[in-house]
Design goal:
Elements (H helix, E strand, L loop, with lengths): L13 E4 L5 H12 L3 E6 L2 H11 L5 E5 L5 H15 L4 E4 L14 H29 L3 E6 L14 H21 L4 E8 L2 E2 L21 E2 H13 L7 E4 L9
Parallel strand pairs: 1-2, 1-4, 2-3, 4-5, 5-6, 6-9, 7-8
């Protein structure tokens, strides 16, 4: 095992998961706790986040920080909380973000700025805080970003240029940082979900989208969590975008 491994038999690793008060982020936090890790959760609504953290159990291995990642101070507080509460940090999962369809010519400048700020800028700033701390620790680390398969395969019936272009920036950031941070033992990868059953689709017949994938179904949040945990542990994988989409990009059923 390398000296910069994020796994160790002598200490409990710590993961920071942004956007973890519900949906994919909450399940990722649950998966890390089940694997024995400490977890620092994040979300914009303090009450909702506190309830989510309480529902996970394991209060001795759970902390949370309310705030938007679009604010640099939120990322810095997440890192400081991990260091102060658990004595270190090992994994950052950049899950927080926003996504909503809108025809291209209907997108306002304010809406475009919102997607770029919350999806790309927020991920960028939070990652900066993590990398500074990881370098100071000197034992490497793992960053897993959450993108989207719509970067590689658009849908005519689902116009979402503004959020997709912001997520494309996250895909590009993953590739660039994998090269830049390799010398520090920091691996940077990305999970690109297809259509997943989450609160994002509340009120919609999400299963009707199953036919867009070769496996003829939508994904579950647990399947994204499994991919994130794999990349967090995969010591010879960096700069990789792992599609978890049931074959959405490859073809259609």
């Amino acid at each position: 095992m390398s000296e910069t491994s994020t796994r160790t038999s002598t200490r409990t690793r710590t993961a920071v998961v942004t956007g973890s008060s519900s949906g994919i982020g909450l399940d990722i936090a649950r998966a890390f706790l089940a694997a024995g890790a400490n977890v620092v959760l994040n979300g914009r609504d303090a009450d909702r986040l506190a309830k989510a953290a309480a529902g996970l159990g394991h209060p001795e291995r759970t902390a949370w920080v309310a705030g938007t990642i679009a604010d640099r101070a939120t990322g810095e507080t997440l890192v400081r909380t991990a260091l102060d509460r658990f004595g270190g940090l090992d994994v950052l999962v950049n899950n927080a973000g926003t996504f909503a369809p809108r025809p291209f010519t209907d997108v306002t400048e304010e809406e475009l700025d919102g997607f770029l700020t919350h999806n790309l800028k927020g991920t960028y700033l939070t990652t900066q805080a993590f990398v500074r701390a990881a370098r100071e620790q000197g034992r490497g680390g793992s960053i897993v970003n959450i993108g989207t398969v719509l970067v590689d395969h658009g849908l005519a019936g689902y116009p979402a240029s503004a959020p997709v272009v912001s997520k494309a920036g996250v895909h590009g950031l993953t590739t660039s940082l994998a090269a830049e941070l390799a010398a520090d033992g920091i691996r940077v990868n990305l999970v690109a979900p297809g259509i997943i059953r989450t609160p994002l689709h509340a009120g919609a017949d999400v299963d009707s989208f199953g036919g867009l994938a070769l496996l003829d179904r939508v994904g579950e949040v647990s399947e994204i969590s499994e991919a994130v945990l794999y990349l967090a542990d995969a010591e010879f994988v960096t700069g990789h975008a792992l599609r978890v989409d049931g074959g959405h990009v490859t073809g259609r059923a």
